[in-house]
Write a structure and sequence with these properties.
Blueprint: H1 26-41, E1 46-48, E2 58-61, E3 71-90, E4 100-113, E5 119-124, H2 126-139, H3 150-165
Antiparallel strand pairs: 1-2, 2-3, 3-4, 4-5
This protein binds nickel (II) ion (NI).
């Protein structure tokens, strides 16, 4: 088990596009284990490999209270199945201390592989729909604050500088 350091905004490596996992081997299983440990340690509900400076298409999530229901997504592909906008107040382990409402489609259909390389397909609504969209964005170098207005982003950058200098 290992807790990996989480890249913090505005680190430019958060903007890298992650590569497809080609081989499901022990290395991938180790990455998944370490990502789950890191997510739990940071008390998050989702973590993308990009955030721990591993640029592969791997996401781990667990929205349960006691971390009893991890879901692993490798090479996730997402289709919007209900584009009704739904607003959730989002946060991100790479942008500590900042929480802002973001509107995203209500329902998505996700195709992915688990850490053994088994494909699965699942529809998500509610918090899990928001979570998986947020995490897939990470794999594409996108952050939730990118959805906010330029003014709001400027305020957040100022806030982060202030938090750092404390
Ligand atoms: Ni995030």
């Amino acid at each position: 088990m290992a807790i990996l350091p989480i890249l913090k905004y505005p680190n430019s490596r958060l903007r890298e596009k992650a590569k497809t996992v080609e081989v499901f081997d022990e290395r991938i299983k180790d990455i998944v284990t370490n990502m789950l440990d890191t997510m739990m340690d940071a008390k998050g509900i989702g973590l993308a490999a990009t955030q721990v400076d591993i640029h592969l298409r791997i996401v781990v999530t667990d929205i349960s209270e006691d971390y009893s229901s991890p879901i692993i997504f490798i090479n996730p592909e997402m289709k919007i199945t209900d584009d009704t906008p739904k607003s959730y107040t989002e946060g991100c382990l790479s942008i500590p201390g900042i929480q802002e409402p973001v509107e995203r489609p209500t329902e998505v259909l996700v195709n992915a592989f688990d850490q053994e390389g088994n494909p699965f397909e699942q529809k998500y609504t509610g918090l899990m729909a928001t979570c998986i969209q947020h995490e897939i964005d990470h794999l594409n170098g996108k952050l939730f604050i990118d959805y906010l207005s330029p003014l709001k982003r400027q305020l957040i950058r100022k806030q982060i500088k202030k938090n750092k200098s404390k």
